[in-house]
Specification:
The chain starts with 16 loop residues before the first helix and ends with a helix. The chain has 26 helices and 21 strands. It has a seven-stranded parallel sheet with strand order 11-12-10-13-14-9-15, with helices on both faces. It is globular. Among the domains are: about 100 residues, Nucleic acid-binding proteins (OB fold (Dihydrolipoamide Acetyltransferase, E2P)); about 150 residues, Rossmann fold (3-Layer(aba) Sandwich), CATH 3.40.50; about 160 residues, P-loop containing nucleotide triphosphate hydrolases (Rossmann fold), CATH 3.40.50.300. α10 packs antiparallel against α12 and α11 runs parallel beside α12. By secondary structure, it is an alpha/beta fold. Bound molecules: adenosine-5'-diphosphate and magnesium ion. Adenosine-5'-diphosphate (ADP) binds next to α12.
């Protein structure tokens, strides 16, 4: 086998030819032998089973039958010519139908010889038939089949209509192995191989395509999944180390007046020990001479904002500017107001920049940013635009990171010659394995403790039948001085209908809560930013008691006196959204409530979501359930899901393998940072780095 045998273009593979080669390249993005070997089956079928014709079931699964063709004839009943065979397993018969290449098939089939047929059963008038099954002489079948487990590869419409079947793919792969030596370049080191009793690379690839036994298949899968995770983690860790060595970070050596005076004299509460720990992490990064890239995970209401403020003060004490970027205008406004308020006792310039900042305001603001008048800039995506230039941005915070992508993070990097320290904060926790897979290049801090005195938000599920009782409860809470949110869904696809629901809901609330006694706010996406801000203010100041709204209040809104959250049509919300919404209450010292309204009849999934909400307040637990229900990609939104295109591994099912592989990658890099003694790994790493799509997402 030549050194570069595996990178031979598939055009040269026996049986492929130029047309199929082009097809495979365009449909499957497979270009070389190696790509094809790394095109893994997505499931296996047990071929040791043969079905009896009279026991076939109408369940859409593949069947395998041994028997003989006892008759074969053309039929002209239909427009196109068909070939119809009668196949008998000795006791019963089944019809087999072909309508492509019929002449050729008719010639090649030998009557009264033993055959194995394999395919999906068609049912018509309660009669089974097989259409274009895989057909093989029993004798040949026995020779060709090396194992009872038959791999199934994913296909595309184009591939199957153009005859590139599962069987053909298997043949191609078999041809690669045939001409190869049995030694493939090893891609892990001895240490790791021994630790897990890994089979060789060759054995792993061979068995994943042609499993010799269930046991060897399991070992093959383990090794290939491990490798997939391992190299991604290695890449993340490299990136982390590389960034630290490449960019000298700003050194914030001192803690000065702003921090001290705010911390000692104006902070209205004591920090939780989790908050203190995180600030310590950040301070350490600030003076480490390397640029910080840190993810702050914490549940709703765990107090991430104050961590951001205190860290900003350190940056400002060292004569740098800072910025805080939020995903929505409302949240940016709210941060602006509350941060201004918190910092009112110390003399700093805080400004805001959003999509609705006027041209005139911008001209002034941009000037103030450039000459360093502004200490803290709060804003939305608008801050990332190229024309926003700071004098010396030292520290940038991204709030509710899940709404942003990697690209936006890297835009921040380019704001200065030296990139600022970066802190990204999540809205709600994401599962550990997901954090590893998507933010694996960041250092992670976790706030795992809520401020003292927080009461759990008591959460119940009610249906329309309970509406009167729910309204009575609302009145009662309002009479105690509390405020209430009532939230309606707003899904992009059904915007107009949702909007109507919101308005209908609002009107019915107004009827039940007459204007003489109750003031009601309404908030939705179609309102002008100024009107939204006014309504928020009114509710915040207690001028209104009820806030009827869409999910625009979902993230971050902080009004401690509001203690009841009613979520209408809660079955239509995702778990993380429900948890976020619930997080709007339980922010003050009063008992808080969340009432999930829904129709009577619920899908299983909706029931699980609601049940999860009524049984726990723990965002980390909720995010685990959410990931299982929706899959990791959907949990993150489209921004980062490109990072989750694994070939063979699965971050839910193979969670343990992910954990091991990250730990091993870490250990490897700490003992051999340049992979001088791990040539195999270095070689494989470079190969993947060059060829894989994946790396683009995180480079
Ligand atoms: P989140 O982590 O969801 O962004 P916030 O930063 O908005 O949470 O904090 C929620 C509320 O808790 C705010 O009103 C904040 O002032 C308050 N808070 C934060 N830390 C503490 C603390 N250590 N003790 C008491 N209240 C706190
Ligand atoms: Mg927040």
């Amino acid at each position: 086998m030549k050194e570069n045998y595996l990178i031979t273009p598939i055009d040269y593979l026996k049986g492929v030819g130029p047309n199929r080669a082009d097809l495979i390249k365009s449909e499957l993005k497979i270009f070389t032998y190696n790509d094809l070997l790394n095109f893994f089956p997505f499931r296996y079928i047990d071929k040791s089973k043969y079905h009896k014709i009279n026991e076939l079931e109408n369940n859409n699964s593949e069947v395998q039958i041994i028997g003989k063709f006892i008759n074969l004839k053309f039929s002209n009943n239909f427009k196109a010519k068909r070939l119809i065979g009668v196949f008998s397993d000795g006791n019963h018969e089944i019809e087999v139908v072909w309508f492509r290449a019929v002449k050729w098939i008719e010639k090649s089939i030998k009557l009264n010889n033993d055959y194995v047929l394999y395919g999906k059963v068609n049912w018509f008038n309660n009669k089974p038939s097989l259409v274009h099954p895989e057909t093989e002489l029993l004798e040949k079948h026995k020779k060709s089949i090396k194992s009872s487990l038959l791999p199934i590869y994913s296909s595309t419409e184009t591939l199957s209509t153009r005859g590139v079947t599962n069987k053909l793919i298997r043949e191609f792969i078999s041809n690669i192995f045939e001409k190869s030596s049995k030694k493939f370049k090893e891609s892990l080191n001895q240490n790791i191989n021994e630790k897990y009793g890994m089979i060789t690379k060759y054995e792993a690839l061979y068995n994943v395509h042609f499993p010799i036994s269930q046991a060897l298949l399991s070992k093959a899968l383990f090794r290939l999944k491990y490798e997939e995770f391992f190299y991604i983690q290695l890449q993340f860790l490299f990136k982390n180390i590389y960034n630290k060595s490449r960019f000298k970070g700003f050194n914030f050596s001192k803690v000065g007046n702003n921090f001290n005076s705010f911390y000692n004299d104006h902070l209205e509460f004591k920090l939780t020990s989790a908050q203190k720990r995180v600030i310590k992490d950040i301070r350490k990064d600030f003076s480490s001479n390397a640029q910080m890239n840190r993810l702050l995970q914490g549940d709703v209401g765990s107090g991430k904002t104050i961590v951001a403020i205190l860290s900003s003060l350190i940056a400002i004490d060292n004569d740098f500017q800072t910025c805080l970027i939020a995903p929505t205008e409302i949240l940016a406004q709210q941060h602006f107001i509350s941060i201004n308020e918190s910092l009112s006792k110390i003399d700093l310039n805080v400004r805001i920049l959003t999509g609705s900042t006027s041209k005139k305001e911008r001209v002034i603001l941009f000037e103030e940013l450039k000459n360093g008048v502004v200490d803290i800039l709060i804003g939305t995506h608008a801050v990332l635009e190229n024309n926003v230039i700071f004098k010396n941005l030292g520290f940038a915070i991204i709030d509710e990171q899940h709404r942003f992508g990697v690209a936006q993070r890297s835009k921040l990097w380019k704001k200065n010659l030296t990139p600022p320290h970066i802190l990204v904060m999540t809205a709600t926790p994401i599962p550990r394995t997901l954090a590893m897979s998507v933010y694996g290049d960041l250092d992670i801090s976790i706030i795992d403790e809520l401020p003292p005195g927080r009461k759990l938000v008591k959460t119940v599920h009610r249906t329309d039948r309970n509406r009167l009782e729910v309204f009575k409860f609302i009145r009662n809470e309002i009479s105690k001085g509390r405020q209430v949110y009532i939230v309606y869904p707003l899904i992009e696809e059904s915007k107009t209908m949702d909007y109507k629901d919101l308005m209908d809901g609002y009107e019915s609330i107004v009827r039940d809560f007459p204007i003489e006694n109750y003031q009601i706010s309404i908030l939705h996406g179609r309102m002008k930013p100024n009107d939204k801000a006014t309504e928020m203010e009114r509710f915040k100041n207690g001028e209104t008691q009820i806030m009827v709204s869409t999910t625009v209040i979902e993230v971050g809104v902080n009004i401690p006196n509001a203690s009841v959250m009613i979520i209408e049509s809660s079955e239509r919300f995702g778990l993380s959204q429900l948890h976020q919404l619930r997080g709007r209450v339980g922010r003050g010292s009063e008992s808080s409530f969340c009432i999930l309204m829904s129709k009577n009849k619920l899908s299983n999934e909706a029931r699980t979501r609601i049940k999860t909400m009524t049984s726990t307040n723990d965002g980390f637990k909720i995010s685990e359930v959410d990931m299982k229900l929706r899959g990791p990609g959907n949990l993150l939104g489209t921004q980062q899901s490109g990072l989750l295109n694994f070939k063979i591994a699965d971050i839910i099912k193979d969670k343990d393998i992910l954990e091991f592989s990250r730990a091993d990658a870490k250990e490897l890099l700490s003992s051999d940072p340049e992979l001088k003694n791990n040539k195999e790994i270095k070689c494989e790493y470079n190969l993947l780095n060059k060829n894989s799509d994946f790396w683009k997402h995180i480079s």
